[in-house]
Amino acid sequence: MNTYKIAGVVATLALSVGLLAACGDNDDKQSNNNNNTNYSSKKSSDKTTSQQDLNGKSFNLSMDDAIKMFQDKNKEADLTSVKLEYENGKAVYKIEGADNMKDYEMVFDADSKEVLEDKAESMDTDDKNDVQNDKINMAGIISMDEAMQKATAESDGAVTSIELERSFNDTVYSVSIENGTNESDVTVNAKDGSVMNVEND
């Protein structure tokens, strides 16, 4: 083989090696970009979960103040449900009650204290009979914060909603908890703070 042919072969091999190295760099960069994207997505997801965890959060409107606002507006109504949850990115209290004629519901922004919804509906006979069974006994109950602490000690995760309601003869907090893809519903006795039931999905 003459000198010119040898030089040509060497040049071709060098070019091929250079191209392969460049492709390898691009693959590494692409892999790094994908890893960064996945990491960013995970951080975003973790941040969202953290932001929507009611446990340990303080709001400008307390549960007691929200109840008072409801009772000032609906003086004859008995409380049947008090719920704190996130809705459209806002923490809201949903309070329900009833008298002998109507069902009432008010929704309050937990931060701005704004009344987001205020409605009343006439009850049928069956609903009237259920009012006494659904009435919440507020005497001596623990706070929502205490109930969330009891619930998360039993089932770890982010509290997405908590509702004070009547269950048979007991006044209870129903606490919904999410941990990744796992969901739990924990029932806490509103009087003594004992965990009555845990349901896992």
TrEMBL record:
Biased composition (Polar residues): 178-187
Keywords, alphabetical: Lipoprotein, Signal
Keyword Lipoprotein: yes
Superkingdom: Bacteria
Signal peptide: 1-21
Pfam families: PepSY (PF03413)
Keyword Lipoprotein annotated: yes
Compositional bias segments (type: Low complexity): 31-53
UniProt region (Disordered), positions on chain: 25-57, 178-201
Name the record gives this protein: Putative lipoprotein
